[in-house]
Amino acid sequence: MELNIYQVDAFAMNVFEGNPAAVCPLEFWLPDDVLQNIAEENHLSETAFFVAEGGYFLLRWFTPEAEVDLCGHATLAAAHVIFEHLGYGRSSVVFNTRSGELVVHQSEFGYRMNFPATLPKTIEVPIVLKQALNVQPQEVMVGFDYLVVLKNESEVRAFSPDFMALSRLDLRGVVITAMGDEVDFVSRCFFPKLGVNEDPVTGSAHCELAPYWSQRLKKSSLTAMQLSKRTGLLRCEVAKDRVVIEGNAVDYLAGKIWVNP
After folding, report:
1. Is 84 noted as a catalytic residue in this protein?
2. DSSP output for the chain
3. CA angle, 120 as apex, 118 and 121 as ends, to 5°?
4. How many Å apart are CA 8 and CA 61, to the nearest integer?
5. Which of 80, 107, 66, 70 is nearest to 20 (CA)?
6. How confident is the model over 51-86, as pLDDT tens digits?
7. Which stretch is the leader sequence (predicted)?
């Protein structure tokens, strides 16, 4: 079977920036093990698969290790493929996912994604997390990841975790963050449990980061920078139980893959 595949740099203004995601449009769902093998073969943090159904698209995300419930940058990449390569004529696209309905709109800055918000709660630091951090946090919270607040942007840049210890944690991963020097907040994201030691730019993490910083800074519109090697710029807007995340996407490749379903 021949399938189209695209690789898109999400939350990027130029190629080689942001977070690369593979996108595979499908006419029907292939077996889960085939989808997982494609994601493993791609060896990117996420591969997105979607199937058109009525007026919306069914969307799923896979890391090289497992299917996940939510992925921002691969959603952005999937919307970009639909708008730019599949001749989609509407101004917004609706995805039906494991995290509910996600809507992506075209915007002047690129694309606006409307995601469910998660407000992290302060917790006592688990022993395994203490061993993994190698730094004294100002605060540790839990959303769908562990959220670790550091003193400043310099500490976030210099952070060097114990990946083996992180892989033993019960949640998806660890997100470190601090107030930014030139943006409202900065972050880095680590998911060794999913085969991704450090994710370049993580849209889903901003569903928990933006509500925290919105409450702390007392503002609903925020600018954010993820300080991975590739870096990524995001704009976030918090409105009650939703987070709007805005970013651009850039094509890197378009090609064909062959699989035996």
Report:
1. no
2. -EEEEEEEEES-SSTTSSEEEEEEEESSPPPHHHHHHHHHHHTSSEEEEEEEETTEEEEEEE-SS-EES--HHHHHHHHHHHHHHS---SSEEEEEETTEEEEEEEETTEEEEEEE----EE-PPPHHHHHHH-S--SEEEESSSEEEE-SSHHHHHH----HHHHTTSSSS-EEEEEE-SSSSEEEEEEEGGGTEEEES--TTTHHHHHHHHHHHHT-SEEEEEE-SSS-EEEEEEEETTEEEEEE-EEEEEEEEEE---
3. 140
4. 14
5. 80
6. 999 889 999 999 998 999 989 899 999 999 999 999
7. none
Query: Which pTM does this prediction carry?
Result: 0.83
Q: Which two tokens stand for residue 125?
A: 């630091």
Tokens 């003193």 -> residue: 151
How confident is the model at residue 211, as a pLDDT?
A: 97
Backbone dihedral angles phi then psi of residue 131, each to the nearest 5 degrees = -65, -30
Which amino acid belongs to residue 51? V
233 CB-near residues (< 8 Å, 6+ apart): 11, 13, 183, 223, 224, 225, 247
Tens digit of each residue's pLDDT (9 = 90 or more) over 221-260: 999 999 999 988 899 999 989 999 999 999 999 999 999 8
Angle at 147 between CA 201 and CA 131, to 5 degrees: 110
- What are the chain's domains? 2-116+246-258 (3.10.310.10), 121-239 (3.10.310.10)
